TrEMBL record:
Organism expressing this protein natively: Mahella australiensis (strain DSM 15567 / CIP 107919 / 50-1 BON)
Biological or metabolic pathway of the protein: Pyrimidine metabolism; UMP biosynthesis via salvage pathway; UMP from uracil: step 1/1
Protein name (record): Uracil phosphoribosyltransferase
MF-aspect GO terms: GTP binding; magnesium ion binding; uracil phosphoribosyltransferase activity
Gene label: upp
GO BP terms in the entry: UMP salvage; uracil salvage
EC assignment: 2.4.2.9
Cofactor: Mg(2+)
Length: 210
């Protein structure tokens, strides 16, 4: 197993993830749970943001207190399931800019091809949190990271919900400098590239499509 992976095993995250995995959970509840988990995960993913001291005045006197310093954040969602994680993160870091990357799988090469990429103009000056709930083969995340790097992004964290061992190993190999934050690591992929046991198709469950 690659060593650049952080499993966020907070009890609240694990409890909500169990509800999310359950096939009887409908789209409304799925959306709400994914949103809540993304917010809880963002708390951990932003744990190493640098702070600086400032002087403020409380109603009682002067105080030196800390605020976030350094680069600003960008949340980049891989379409379409990544959309389900952006709002939860933005609730904690409302000043973050949001970008979108759309990928489809070429039926001949089976490689992901980008059909849409809209990023904040100052992406090279921002710390990036790339979001996609399911890290399966790692092909989409690999492509998205390459795109981000081509556009000048230098500091990228990958945040997913469930990762396969294969996907983690692939991303660790291709991008050893990109830490992976996940709520769970699942055993394997099936013949259709779905994570087992996973939660099914995250996009379909989120948007009620099939
Ligand atoms: N994408 C999904 O939505 N689910 C999987 O299990 C794998 C990829």
């Amino acid at each position: 197993m690659g060593n650049n992976v952080i499993v966020l095993d907070h009890p609240l995250i694990q409890h909500k993830l169990t509800l999310l995995r359950d096939k009887s959970t409908g789209s409304k509840e799925f959306r709400e749970l994914l949103d809540e988990i993304a917010m809880l995960m963002a708390y951990e993913v932003t744990r190493d943001l640098p702070l600086k001291e400032v002087e403020i005045e409380t109603p009682v006197g002067k105080a030196r207190s800390r605020v976030i310093s350094g680069k600003k954040l960008a949340v980049i969602a891989i379409l379409r399931a990544g959309l389900g994680m952006t709002d939860g993160i933005l609730r904690l870091v409302p000043a973050a800019k949001v970008g979108h990357i759309g990928l489809y799988r070429d039926p001949d090469t089976l490689r992901p091809v980008d059909y849409y990429c809209k990023l904040p103009g100052d992406i090279q000056e921002r710390d990036v949190i790339l979001v996609d709930p399911m890290l399966a083969t790692g092909g989409s995340a690999d492509e998205a990271i390459k795109l981000l790097e081509q556009k000048g992004a230098r500091s990228i964290k990958l945040m997913c919900l469930i990762a396969s061992r294969e996907g983690i190993e692939y991303i660790n190999h291709q991008h050893p400098d990109v830490p992976i934050y996940t709520a769970a690591i699942d055993e394997k992929l099936n013949e259709h590239g779905y994570i087992v046991p996973g939660l099914g198709d995250a996009g379909d469950r989120l948007f009620g499509t099939k």
